[in-house]
Prior knowledge:
This protein is of the alpha/beta class and 286 residues long. The chain has a domain at 16-215: HUPs (Rossmann fold, 3-Layer(aba) Sandwich). The protein has 13 helices and 5 strands. Helix 3 runs parallel beside helix 4 (83-96). It starts with a helix and ends in a 5-residue tail after the last helix. The model has no long low-confidence stretch (mean pLDDT 96).
Amino acid sequence: MKWEDSLVSYRTQRSFDPKLWIDEKCKKFNDYFVTHGISGAVLSVSGGVDSAVTLALLVHTMSLSNSNLKKICAVNQPIHSSGWAYNRAKELCDKFGVEMVTIDQTETHKELIGLVNKSCNYTGTVFSDGQLRSYMRTPINYYLSQLQSESGFPSVVMGTGNADEDGYLAYYCKYGDGAVDVQLINDLHKSEVFKVGKYLGVPDSILTAPPSADLWENQEDEKELGFSYDFIELFTGYFLKLDSNEQQKLIDSFDKDSKEEFIKNKEACEKVHMRNLHKINGVVNI
């Protein structure tokens, strides 16, 4: 047996129903808005599937007869970004009838990198430069949220993290895309995000593209992580919930090649988890 066979069984047991999930999630989300007197939302649209599905959920929530959501600010913030990122974000917003605000911070990023590196005598890497892109988008999101609040629409900043990335792996920028007020898709595996996106009518250009944060040229999430989203889903959704004996029994049930691949990916997942554990633990008071 291959580990992919266990993934099929796990998905069958989970029996995810996108329509049921959408109805329950949007009702719960609207209840939150009503309870807290919130009527606006700010969302960074990147051209990726997570922000696309989150926008679609916002629009769906706004369509409810008793919706308290009255204003959506979809903001695209290019910073040395690929052309596809803007094009897909614009296509998405046009599809759902939401005006897209574009705030290009490319020149600001260049100036800030130069200033910091010169002052501290550092030379940044592609990775650190990419992380700064994520950090820089946070204050814009919250400034826009404040502006909407002052204009009569008390607002929150929306997150776009899914369970596979933002859970065990903590694969996000702590005070970049991780600095948000409300998460909608945090309980979904990546495969389920795509199912919700398809159900809600997210454009195919987004649904068929390999996931990428676009924080540096030709970056792809699975290549950066070193394992697939399918593996993360099985590992975090099923394997980690077994006791040690059950875990070993499952591993031993795989054929030789699949067992070796599973163990290799397992070790890689654990390495990412340990590297990012401080994010999960939050601020530490010592």
